[in-house]
TrEMBL record:
InterPro entries membership: CheY-like_superfamily (IPR011006), Homeodomain-like_sf (IPR009057), HTH_AraC (IPR018060), HTH_AraC-typ_CS (IPR018062), Sig_transdc_resp-reg_receiver (IPR001789), Tscrpt_reg_AraC-type_HTH (IPR020449)
Classification via CDD domains: REC_YesN-like (cd17536)
Xref: PANTHER family: ARAC-FAMILY TRANSCRIPTIONAL REGULATOR, HTH-TYPE TRANSCRIPTIONAL REGULATOR EXSA
Protein name, entry field: Response regulator
Amino acid sequence: MWKVVLVEDETFVRESVKEIIRWEELGFALAGEASNGEEALELIRREPPDLVLCDIVMPKMDGLELLKETRKAGIASKFVMLTCIGDFESVRQAMEYGASNYILKLSMSVKDLRETLGKISEELCAAKPATPPAREIERGPDVLADRIAHPEVKKIIRYIEHNYDQEISLASLARHVMMGENYVSALFKKKTGETLIHYLHRIRIEKAIEYLRSTDLPVSQIGQNVGFMNDNYFIKIFKRMTGTTPSQFRQSR
């Protein structure tokens, strides 16, 4: 999961951004938030995030100065600037200092945020060293379920094992065990060492590997068979977890 710090002095905007995006489904986790640049800089220095989603105009320290100070500290976090119409000179300077993108707050939509986060995720994946070969990620759900004592976590693991090919979300898993989404997410991570979305992806990729080894089904069909309705997303997650694309994996076998 890519870690995000959200920096915005307007409470309404900050809360809206937090609520309108299903962060985990896009591979991101909110690691912290701040209402001004000074607070944010402390967070970033203490535990550098992968992405800073940052307003430009803020009290104490604005977004542009925060970006500059972050770079002075040798921290390479991606920056996406939230801006209002008329701030384009600040945006231009931010891009010069390495900001990846900007979003207009007045016209910001779920689509804008999802597209921007998708682009950032691709950039982060491209910069990340290749992960271990697929054979090294194969540790079945039964092994994990056997060593987990917590009944609700075990129930989630079994549910994913039997329904990985269906649409699964944090909300649906929370309903399955009749717990709150935030609690379930934190509990699963504490008991297994993995986030729910990472575990779901891992199980789906393991199942995809079985198909690639034992069938001649097209890659797109395999992706659908294991629960990925989008071919590009399937290929991206497969490569993130195995270091190779499904087609390359099949050819190597």
